[in-house]
């Protein structure tokens, strides 16, 4: 029997590889001869690099880069596909988790470190880069990234603008003559699961600015600065990015990737599944197990479990969904291809305990499920 375990991370409890391994361990304790294929997944956000490198037998590269507060941080990215493709999470270099709560200020935070990761990957001769752009601490429209790649964003006096979303107010012109020449031969794809435009009431600053530390006054300033950036991009580069779906992702990094690197923005889970050749990996499976920390009605809309389930169903592979918590209206997933849904929690326990015991609970659930499937197979 071939079982595929293809989970996303169980946030604050298990990474996707840890969840997959705990399931495999428990299942094979009960059914040692079963073939359990571990295929950890991600939808473009946290854990994308780890999941894709693990699933593709790639390698990790560690690099010291500029953090969001212009300090030095350690960041990791991946190389897969025999060295042809780099996988980068912008949050590794420019993520909100790198900024203490009291220091969060998107007027100051920069995407420079993300650009430094791109620069390093380009030096290794890759032909494609996949960038996960969730979890940012920034609102600079990708200005810091661009400068790290050789673009000069200049004030009226010809000096470089200050880093951060606040510095965009000084922008007078954009000079791309120094952009790394090797970048033109690389295909850039951004994994993006939001469709927010760059500016306005649904834009980067208004929707995501507050969680990055922006006050109402800052939101207005940041929004105006991104509007200004888009007008200079249109004038100097001939590209219209302001109203493009996804241009507001990661504090406008979506717009910057489109403007400076001609990146295409794609739905995260499908991008990941295609990159690791998921359809081939699950071929011939008798059952797919997928899940994440919480499964509810929102899972239907582009989340990892639904994306994996759709691929399995095209091959007539039954799908079981597992989660730490099953939320409201979860039964809608049973109407959209899932055979069964389970919580791995053993009963009424605190959230803290559930997070701590995640690997143990996953292993015990898998042990029990293997027993059920053995009985079914022998009936």
From TrEMBL:
Q: Does the keyword Transferase apply?
A: yes
- As recorded in UniProt, its EC number(s) are 2.7.1.31
User: What keywords tag this UniProt record?
Assistant: Kinase, Transferase
Q: Name one GO molecular function term.
A: glycerate kinase activity
Q: Which InterPro entries match?
A: Glyc_kinase_flavodox-like_fold, Glycerate_kinase, Glycerate_kinase_RE-like, Glycerate_kinase_sf
SUPFAM superfamilies for the chain:
Glycerate kinase I
**One Pfam family from the record:** Gly_kinase
Q: Which superkingdom, per the lineage?
A: Bacteria
Task: Name the family.
Answer: Belongs to the glycerate kinase type-1 family.
Q: What is this protein called?
A: Glycerate kinase
What is the source species?
Metabacillus sediminis
